[in-house]
């Protein structure tokens, strides 16, 4: 089963189990984000990834330089361990980890969780790639992908057993918009998947395709990349089609 099929199944289960007012609250919040989010202010292909130092699940400091020293880097930003869609994505990435490793690409997951919760995530899903804590969304904020969820989400999440203070160290309700960022070993962003609809994620197969060597070479031109906006591209090749010289990166919108 594809990741997207699993995500759709999880959403269908949620719609069956959750009370209608809860579904309406979440849907209206996501719709408001879709209406207001300006993807042009988010990290773009061709830009440098900001340097960072984040703690991993065991509390050790991990720098962007140390990750990029190994080669290309694929960063997966997720909301939290309480999000079933995030959990499905993390497991899907883990299932393809040998292929990413064979391609020379380092995977790392990033959320605003405190390290203790990141450790729980890593252990729960037997993740063999770094799970990093971007406490306070400092890195996500530099990338322009932070969403302050509506206050109405707070009581609902608490009702689901989410202790925000314990898991995040604050009461902000801020999370990253789920995003996948492919970075070359030179620190230049090569491709971005970004969707305000948290039920939409990049298929690992598509991530492997955009991580092909030709798109990671130092001579790679950003105009061959794409920022995926608001919709999920069915195949990575469709977002890597070369455009006419001088044109900006292709933009897919609803």
From TrEMBL:
Alphabetized InterPro entries for the sequence: AhpC/TSA (IPR000866), Peroxiredoxin_BCP/PrxQ (IPR050924), Thioredoxin-like_sf (IPR036249), Thioredoxin_domain (IPR013766)
EC number(s) reported in the record: 1.11.1.24
Record carries keyword Oxidoreductase: yes
A Pfam family: AhpC-TSA
Name used for this protein in its record: thioredoxin-dependent peroxiredoxin
SUPFAM superfamilies listed in its UniProt record: Thioredoxin-like
GO cellular component: cytoplasm
